[in-house]
Amino acid sequence: VTLVIGALVQQRYFAPRFMLPTLLGLIPVLALGSEYIIVYSARYTGFVWVIALCLFMGLIGYSTLEQEFKRLYRYQIQDASKCDIEGFTIPECKDMVSINILASQGDRVIVPNSYVYWLRNDLIQCMGTKSEKQLLQGGINSLSQLYDLGFRYVSVEGDLWNLSNVPTEYEVDLEYRREVMGLAPSMSIYKLDSYDQSVQSSVMCNRFGQNSWSISRATNE
């Protein structure tokens, strides 16, 4: 009881997942009690079956099958987009779908978070690495490095870039903007280009199979 009360007091708002470690700690006590009832109390056989039925109904009600059915209903019947099949809009999904629409095949994109599973197959293979993502911390000052690494679309969380500081040889356009939604920070997507034909990227993403892409150094001919 003390463990449960302590978990309830410490959490900021009620959610079962925050109490999971505490509840897991109570499993031995519950298991011993259940074993005693089943093994040593034959007169409680009916009660045991009732508990088993309740557990079965609870697991079915909370199972992924129910959630998958709801998603299928929203997608097929209500014609919801894949970003809305949970019953609410997933902002990160909207961001990634927007990149899919904007970017051409083989374009290198850089995303500051880990919600990349909504990206197209080619964009995932060509996207920025963990070390390259650190360039986003430099903001507009990292523009030349980002372009040299072959990035054509850059998504940035938080404040907008000050495009008045863009060097004259580069072109940066704001293609997408989403304000803060719940816990998701605001997101901006910029398209990078160059006015100067002599400014070329040293990194590119090349296709070498039907659905395979590889990041490589550009060759100067």
Question: How would you summarize the topology of this molecule?
Answer:
Blueprint (H helix, E strand, L loop, with lengths): L1 H9 L9 H6 L1 H14 L4 H18 L1 H14 L13 H12 L5 E3 L10 H6 L3 H4 L9 H6 L2 E7 L12 E9 L8 E8 L8 E5 L5 E5 L4
Parallel strand pairs: 1-2
Antiparallel strand pairs: 2-4, 3-4, 5-6
Order of helices and strands: HHHHHHEHHHEEEEE
Oligomer: single chain
How many helical elements? 9
Please indicate the count of domains. Answer: 2
Let me know the number of strands: 6
Mean pLDDT: 84
**Poorly predicted regions:** none
Strand order of the largest sheet: 1-2-4-3
Which percent range describes the beta-strand content? 15-25%
Notes on the structure:
The chain has helices spanning 2-10, 20-25, 27-40, 45-62, 64-77, 91-102, 121-126, 130-133, 143-148; strands spanning 108-110, 151-157, 170-178, 187-194, 203-207, 213-217. The protein has a four-stranded mixed beta sheet. Strands 5-6 form a two-stranded antiparallel ribbon. The chain contains nine helices and six strands, in the order ααααααβαααβββββ. The chain has two domains: 2-55, no CATH class; 91-217, no CATH class. Helix content is 40%, strand content 17%. It is α+β, with helices and mostly antiparallel strands and 221 residues long. The radius of gyration is 26 Å and the shape is elongated. The mean pLDDT is 84. The chain starts with a helix and ends with a strand.
